[in-house]
Amino acid sequence: MNKLFYTLIGIFLISCQAPKEKKSEQSNEPTIIGYEFNDKGEKLNLIAGDASVTNIYLEYIQAHNDKDLSKISEIDMDNIVVRAANGALINGSDSHTEQLDIWFKASNPSWKVKFMVANNVQGNDGENQAWLTTGVDVVQSIDGNNVTSHHIVDVNFVDGKVKELIVYDRASEQE
User: Fold this and answer.
1) 67 falls within a domain
2) Would you report the helix, strand and coil content of the chain in percent, each value rounded to 5?
3) Per residue of the chain (175 residues), what is the pLDDT tens digit?
4) Taking CA atoms, which of 4, 130, 140, 142 is between 20 and 30 Å from 111?
5) What is the reported pTM?
6) Cα 82 to chain center, whole Å?
7) CATH number, residue 150
8) In a domain, 18, yes or no
9) Which helix (H) or strand (E) holds 72?
10) CA pair distance 110, 158, nearest whole angstrom
């Protein structure tokens, strides 16, 4: 009987102890969301990026919709590089502004953001590059008709400004 009594007391005391803290399975390592291969063929990690760049991009797109060349120029780095979908290469904020002015007057384009994904490329040198991959619909007036194209734009940010734009596009489906 004493043995049973002590066993029950032991079980009771053990059950009254505070639960032990479980160790977290989470790591402080960045989350790898994919890979990029540089010009040398080296595999670089793509990691989840800082979503705050989305606010800069939305401001940038609003400036495009407002045809506010001054605001666009303010967000562009002086040495911005634009790699257009048609193969054109635009170097510098002044050239970018000039090309946009021509486009605005010719086609009155407007943009609608469909998605944004912030990511960083981890360089082999330990430096990260901040990128935003976006999907936008662009509506232009061409020969009196509204024509929609779908753009994927990779936007490189440095110090809160746009350093590089790489644009890919696809025409809207024909009905």
Assistant:
1) yes
2) 30, 45, 30
3) 555 444 444 454 445 555 454 454 666 778 889 999 988 999 998 999 999 999 999 999 999 999 999 999 999 999 999 999 999 999 999 999 999 999 999 999 999 999 999 999 987 777 889 999 999 999 999 898 999 999 999 999 999 999 999 999 998 776 5
4) 130
5) 0.79
6) 16
7) 3.10.450.50
8) no
9) helix 69-75
10) 25
